[in-house]
Structure formats: C-alpha cells, structure tokens
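Lab notebook, bench 4. The sequencing result for the construct came back, and we need a structural model before the next group meeting so we can plan mutations. Quick request posted to the team channel:

Model the 3D structure of this chain.
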Amino acid sequence: MSENLEQSFVAQLKQNQNIIHKICRLYTSGEDAHKDLFQEITIQLWKAYPKFRGDAKFSTWAYRVALNTAITLYRKSTRTVQTVSNEFDGSRHFIPQDEYNYEEEEQIKLLYQAVHQLSDIEKALVFMYLEDKDYAEISETLGISEVNARVKMNRIKGKLKKILNP
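Done. Here's the predicted structure in token form:
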C-alpha cells in the first residue's frame, strides 16, 4: 500500500484512538486483554481502510469496525485474541497511547462493572450514548432504527438502575 495511505491512516488513528481505548475497556477486563484487543482493532481498521470511502465520518466508521471486532472476538468462549500478520508496520509510526488509568474513581468503576453485565449490543449502545452521540449516529453505526435505539436505551437505563441500586 502507498506511503500516503499509511500516513493518512496513522493520522486518523491518532485522532480517534480514544474511541478504541474506550471500546476495549468495555469489552475486556485487564490491561493485557485491553492491549490485545486494541491491537486487533487497529489491524482490522488497517485492513479495511482501503475500502473506507468517506461516506461517513472516520470516527463513525471506526466505531463500527471496532465494535464489530470486539463483539466478534469476545463472543467466543475462549476470550482470546488471535492476531494476524498484515502489511502495516506500526513500528515505523509511534502512536502515543494516552495514559490509561485503571485506578479511576469508584463511581466510574461501578458503572463499568454494571455495563459489563449487559449484552454486547447493549454495551455498544451505552458506550455511544455516553459519548454524546445522537440517536441518528447511534442507529447508523449499529444498523438499527432511531426508534429502536431510543427504546433499547430506555430499557438499558432501567437495567443499569437495577444493577447499581439493587
């Protein structure tokens, strides 16, 4: 692939890496699993990047690829990430990862513990909702109607209230 395509990808990834970190945190527990999933999502984004047409924002497209990768990998009972070789040589480009603090305040920990009890689709919806995405973007990314997204979100809020306040 061309150097220009690689530079464009790296720039987009740098701008949107927090999306990937947050998805990794939703679908994994532990730093090693987080790093493995981050790497696998990056590989899947790179492999799909030549087909990215720009019809949607890069961040919306990255959400979809990252969520699909996380859901697919973590539905497997083994919960292991198998990486594949690819043409992208990440060692040539240092992508600084923001310090990711696993010792965050207690309320955030409790929220993540509650969210971990949700289904894969529910996790994705909550994540996008917490990222202040509107229902139009949520529905586009998840491939459901806006009405369905709103109904699901209301049900999820009820579930989370029961989990957090038994």
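The domain at 104-166 is CATH 1.10.10.10 (Arc Repressor Mutant, subunit A).
Will bring this to the meeting.
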